[in-house]
Amino acid sequence: MTAPTPYLHLPGTAREALTFYAGVFGGSARLFTLADFQRSDGPADAIAHGELVDGPVALAASDATGDDEPFAARGLMLSLLGTTEPATLRTWFDRLADGGEVLDDLQPRPWGASDGQVVDRFGLRWLIGFEGDEG
Fold first, then answer.
1. Where is the signal peptide (predicted)?
2. Does domain 78-131 have CATH number 3.10.180.10?
3. What does the domain layout of the chain look like in residue ranges?
4. Fewer CB in 10 Å around end: N or C, the chain?
5. pLDDT value at position 135?
């Protein structure tokens, strides 16, 4: 099954955001400017399209240009529940929290799982967790 890839229009921060996310999750950020695509609807060095590659998390972004509205979300979380080893998920949580806001610390729950929520420095809300012990 193919999973959707979140695609963000950011307010001039796409390069910074994708570089940050590549540092959090691994892989690298592939970035193309408006100049690369021969577009003139914004600054030549603005990101026309960028994506995470060679890593475990799919995410794409561009800088909002023209009539594009920059990303804002309410009632949306990106979930990374059980997507990799617990130690890796804990590391991702801590890295996403750097410059962001921990809403609910990653902690054991009464039902036997661990999870937590964080809003990163770019306004994305993440739900991260795993089943069982970190062992």
1. none
2. yes
3. 7-63, 78-131
4. N
5. 62
Same fold, 7-63 and 78-131: no
CA distances from 71 to 56, 107, 116, 133 (A): 23, 29, 23, 35
For the stretch 13-41, what's the b/e string if a residue is b when 16 or more beta carbons lie within 10 angstroms of its beta carbon? Answer: bbbebbebbbebbebebebebbeeeeeee
Quote the CA–CA distance of 62 and 59 in Å, as a whole number.
11
Per-residue confidence (pLDDT) for residue 134, from 0 to 100: 74
Edge-to-edge strand list for the sheet holding 78-81: 78-81, 125-131, 113-119, 101-108
Of 92, 94, 134, 93, the C-alpha closest to 113 is: 134
- Percent with pLDDT over 70 in the chain: 99
Q: Where do we find the tokens 């801590």? A: 94
